[in-house]
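Reviewer comment 2.1 asked that we show a complete input and output for one of the modelled complexes. We chose the ISJ case, as it is the one discussed in the main text.
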Amino acid sequence: LSLDTVRDFLTREEDAIVFSLIERARYPANAPAYGPAAAGDLGRLHGASFAEMFVRESEAVQAKAGRYQSLQEIPFFPFRVPFTLAPPYNFTAELHAAAASVNVNGAIWSTYFSQLLPLLAKNGDDGNYAATVASDLVCLQALSRRINYGRYVAEVKFIGDQQNYTTLIRKKDKDALMKLLTSEAQEDVVKRRVQKKAMVFGQNVTLDGPVETGNSNSSQTSFKVDPSLVYKLYDKWVIPLTKQVEVEYLLHRLD
Ligand SMILES: C=C(O[C@@H]1C=C(C(=O)O)C=C[C@H]1O)C(=O)O
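Response of the prediction step:
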């Protein structure tokens, strides 16, 4: 684990996030899949929305298959994952045990449904609820993996500057920790790169003509997901939540 390998991981996760957003943007809002019983009985199970039920049941299957044996993956509904059918694998313990379970899945969940989805999906209802919530699951998992990876980022930063971090952790000085772990230059690179990925990955590829570059004056290129929305997603939510994970991890780093 080094700052370079950790940043490489986050860079690769950008691809997963951008592609997952492109897939979700194919479907309209499909509000009945999320609402409290708005369309009669659709998907209402134990008081949960269809989307919530789908995520829970999917996570239960994936838990049995061993997905959460890796610390890189954290389920949204951990109480549903009591055992595994997977062959055991000894994942390397790269995180400090007391801090390893730090995560912000609750904030990711509410931000995704209340803020991101309304910006991502066009108005409408085409009835494709199962396919729609399946694409939500992929988005949620990619975002969760990226954001909760802040634990690994924090571990690397802690190891690289133990003295300063230890002092601030002992003082429980969240603001100073936040300042110490922040690299504005790096954040700027990340935000501009994801915006560019949305432009590159979200084009229509045809066999005639050159690959569209998005800067031809004649035709306004339309992207499958708005690149400025992806920039904003990182600026307002992904990076701040990652840093929140980093701070919370550090606060438990000496437990
Ligand atoms: C992840 C890092 O830590 C912080 C969070 C960043 C992010 O979430 O992209 C970027 C820079 C830092 O402010 C890092 O340094 O790479």
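The chain is about 55% helix and 0% strand. We note this here for comparison with the apo prediction described in Section 3.2.
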